[in-house]
Amino acid sequence: MQNLDLAEINAQLRDKSAEEIIKWALSLERQTIQTTSFSPNAAVMLHLLVKVDRRVPVLWIDSGYNTRDTYLVAEQLTEDLQLNLQSYAPLMTTARRDAMMGIPTLDDEALHKEFTRQVKLEPFQRALEQHKPEVWLTGIRNNETAFRETLDVVSWDSRGILKVAPIFYWDDKQVDSYMAENKLPSCKRYFDPTKVEDKRECGLHTGG
Questions:
Q1: Where is the Phosphoadenosine phosphosulphate reductase domain (predicted)?
Q2: CATH superfamily of 6-181
Q3: Whose C-alpha in 4, 5, 55, 208 is 20 to 30 A from the C-alpha of 183?
Q4: Which residues contact residue 68 at a Cβ distance below 8 angstroms, ignoring those fewer than 6 apart?
């Protein structure tokens, strides 16, 4: 895997459809996962995946701070698409963490970093240790954050996993059209306590 020529691969995949990119990733015949946050447009990648292979484990890091709407949509998508959903939660309950630290702001960088470790990075590390993936399908897009603008359809994650983003170059109109055409449910209210502000990474894709 380490000898893959990513420049050549990205050139080949740049104009391929999302389904073709997923099929390419699975053709590597390596342990593969897909992650989801069940955010408003997360159904796009989930729908694309099950059209190709619904057996792929879908990992959800449930921070414990999701809205009721998010949980309801997650249940609906899991049932409708027959997802192979694997959910991972923090070791500490939300109620206990609220009592101990609440949801830190970026003003306290150290506390917010610890909060992010507890609710996102530690559960994700447990998921990685269990599944030992070599390929990671993800719904990230290049126009979402400054960090993602530096990536491509295929890139190496800092953990040594091959990250494959089938809708990397989709714009908002393409995403909205796919959601509408396939009548996919979307949570109207979504909350990620680790991001704090738009265009900020939660830590999952940067490794911390």
A1: 33-190
A2: HUPs (3.40.50.620)
A3: 55
A4: 189
